[in-house]
Design a protein that fits this description.
single chain; 255 residues; alpha/beta; Rossmann fold; Helicase, Ruva Protein, domain 3; 2 domains; 6-stranded mixed β-sheet; two-stranded antiparallel sheet; 9 helices; elongated
């Protein structure tokens, strides 16, 4: 079961770290593991009294997991996670996600969780450390940006611990880190999320410029650009302020 570079495989071999990752997932009735690989996390997760669906793209590894853990033989999905219709899992009930995510699709996995945020309770995942820091960072940080705001709109994010290269076989070229997302108990879903996404992306694409310069193209009422919030740079705005800004622009554009 050699690692396949085409699938971005780096197998975690440190059992202590594997157990820490598994323990970071709160008790759940339903959860999926993305890319179980050789089963280093699976051996701890399968002990839980829960509905557990592993999703493994690699045919050889999917067969290995099914053989090694007979209780998963009927539930394992041998497919690319990004092609799985999450809306059909667990009969519409909420669930969580855990995994040592391949770096090349880790951000896509994150955004899949965002797309299904109403049903995702928790996400515990291994990311490239820089990506993990970006997701968890707050206003004022140099790495605070698009991913930070869009993730933190729906989830509370905890940066748990970093994982050095030598804990994998083969070792990746970068340091990794584990983070945990927990769905917020209250999310303001009254705003236009597509507008929020546009505002956040436009703002951070020119992060050194003031908001009035980056957003003037989507603000119909130019007098609005004189508001204090438009005199600031995006990295200084909290998630809550981006939400307020989205509401303000949306309301003014409709009036």
């Amino acid at each position: 079961m050699k690692a396949k570079k085409s699938l971005g495989q780096h197998f975690l071999v440190n059992e202590y770290i594997a157990e820490r990752i598994a323990d970071a997932l709160p008790e759940e009735k339903n959860f999926i593991e993305v890319g179980p690989g050789r089963g280093v996390l699976t051996k701890y997760l399968v002990k839980r009294d829960a509905n557990f669906i592993p999703i493994e793209k690699d045919d050889v590894l999917a067969a290995f997991i099914a053989n090694e853990y007979p209780s998963l033989a009927q539930t394992i999905i041998n497919n690319d996670f990004l092609k799985v219709d999450l809306s059909k899992l667990f009969e519409g009930a909420s669930f969580s996600i855990i995994g040592n995510f391949p770096y090349n699709i880790s951000t896509q996995i994150l955004f899949a969780a965002i797309d299904h945020s109403e049903r995702i309770n928790h996400l515990v995942g291994m990311f490239q450390r820089e990506v993990a820091q970006r997701i968890a960072s707050g206003p004022g940080s140099k790495v605070y940006g698009i991913t930070s705001v869009l993730t933190q709109y729906y989830f509370d994010v905890e940066y748990l611990f970093k994982v050095e290269k030598g804990n994998f076989n083969p070792p990746p070229k970068v340091t990794s880190a584990v983070i945990r997302l927990s769905r917020k108990s209250s999310v303001d879903r009254s705003i236009d999320f597509s507008l929020l996404k546009s505002i956040v992306k436009m703002s951070f694409q020119q992060r050194r410029k003031m908001m009035r310069n980056t957003l003037k193209g989507i603000v119909k009422d130019k007098n609005l650009l004189e508001e204090e919030i438009f005199q600031r740079r995006p990295e200084s705005l909290s998630v809550e302020e981006f939400i307020s800004l989205t509401k303000l622009i949306g309301q003014k554009n409709e009036s």
